[in-house]
Amino acid sequence: MTCTAMDSSPQLPSGPSSIPAHRRASDSLEESISTPQNSKAPEVLDLRNKSASCSVFELANRYTVKKVIGKGAFGCVVAGEDEFGNPVAIKKLSHAVSDSRSSRRLLRELRFLRHVRGHPNVISVEDVVVKQRGGEVDVYIVTELMEADLEQIIKSSQALTTEHVRCLIFQIINGLRHIHSAGIVHRDLKPANMIVDSECRLKICDLGLSRHIADPSVSQHYDAKFTDYVVTRWYRAPELLLGNRIYDHKVDLWAAGCILGELLGRKALFKGSDTGDMLRKQVGVIGSPSEADLAMLTGDEAARNYMRKMPVRPRVNSFELFPGGDLAALELLDSLLQWDSRRRIGADEALRSSFLLELFEPASSLATNHCELAAISCGSLGSEQVTNLIFLEGALWRTRSGHRCSPIDLEMRSNPRVPHFCACSCGQKFRRGCDFLQHLEGLA
């Protein structure tokens, strides 16, 4: 699921200097992403069976739409309000189960979003509605609405102060700490996958490429084998560029380091045109890897020989890259951009760095296992099972949010073991749904 942010151009006024650091960045972003003053308020339309310029929405009239904020091959995203007047983004995924790859990705993302819900730095899903039209299935994902994504902020012409950078990178790594504590690797961390509001609150989104790993607390263990082509090239860790299919959550920390460098320099740190160019640019900044580094980066001797043939370069001093940069920020950058992931710091250690420590609350909550999702991979499930589980995810979200079940939310005709949630209370529905998901995952 792509991020849902308003499409206005961000403007960042300089922040006041007398406010404490952890509040100053937040306050200085007020009115940073405002709609032009001469724009007219869009007409409010009932979403039910109404066209939203790029799609037809079929939802109960508890939601209204104001404007289209995004569209593409994936579907359509609109800004709207719920029945209480709260702003929401509603994304419609048309033909959501038309192919096996996209349906599995959707199911995995819905599961992960449910698993990590409730954290201030992870996107909050308010509702998931699954509708069937003949042989087609449409999925509506309702989330909180934010004003811009971080890519827009970085590309804006106004200044980002050290306090802005501290505030934003703290929230990125704090969100990663929560995601990793659930045993999940994001795998596609980039500025466009983070949404920001005018108070400098940031949330990580788009968990569609995420995967579950067995033990995220043991960083030296490469304990998950993933075969997908993941992470946008500029933020891709060297072990991924070198084709290593055995890696862990440290790929997210490399990406966080790239984003920190981009916040400091207002341009991508490693803007490579292809894999070879990316590796050359990484060598040009963090120096040539040692033989010990190469041994950890890849088991492919051809890949190691490719790196050995590159001219030997020393690591560039971060002060040369970012003259006048904050010392603590540059120390954190160096700790995140390490060839060997065993030396690359994790989220907890990064939050305890001198740059972020003043904002860190060690007692802050980590992910809670509402459902034991140890076998969360969908790889061995058949397409019909995946479709059924997507319907069930919709039912779980709706019962959790207090909406009354309807038969279409519970349509599991090909699997008679699906419980009839509507016969019990919302709490019972949610618990029974978790039990059923756990049972199916145990079969995977």
Automatic annotation (TrEMBL):
Highest taxon listed in the record's lineage: Eukaryota
Query: SMART domains of this UniProt entry?
Result: S_TKc
Entries under Gene3D superfamilies matching the protein: Phosphorylase Kinase, domain 1, Transferase(Phosphotransferase) domain 1
Q: Which UniProt keywords apply?
A: ATP-binding, Kinase, Nucleotide-binding, Serine/threonine-protein kinase, Transferase
Keyword ATP-binding assigned? yes
Which InterPro entries does the protein's record reference?
Kinase-like_dom_sf (IPR011009), MAPK (IPR050117), Prot_kinase_dom (IPR000719), Protein_kinase_ATP_BS (IPR017441), Ser/Thr_kinase_AS (IPR008271)
Residues recorded as binding ATP, renumbered to this chain, are K92
What are the recorded GO MF terms, alphabetically? ATP binding; protein serine/threonine kinase activity
Q: Where is the Protein kinase domain?
A: 63-356
The upper taxonomy is: Eukaryota, Cryptophyceae, Pyrenomonadales, Geminigeraceae, Guillardia
Quote the protein name from its UniProt record: Protein kinase domain-containing protein
> Bias category Polar residues: which stretches?
1-17, 31-40
| Similarity field | Belongs to the protein kinase superfamily.
Q: Where is the signal peptide?
A: none
The membrane spanning regions, by residue number, are none
Q: Which PANTHER family match?
A: MITOGEN-ACTIVATED PROTEIN KINASE
The region called Disordered is annotated at 1-42
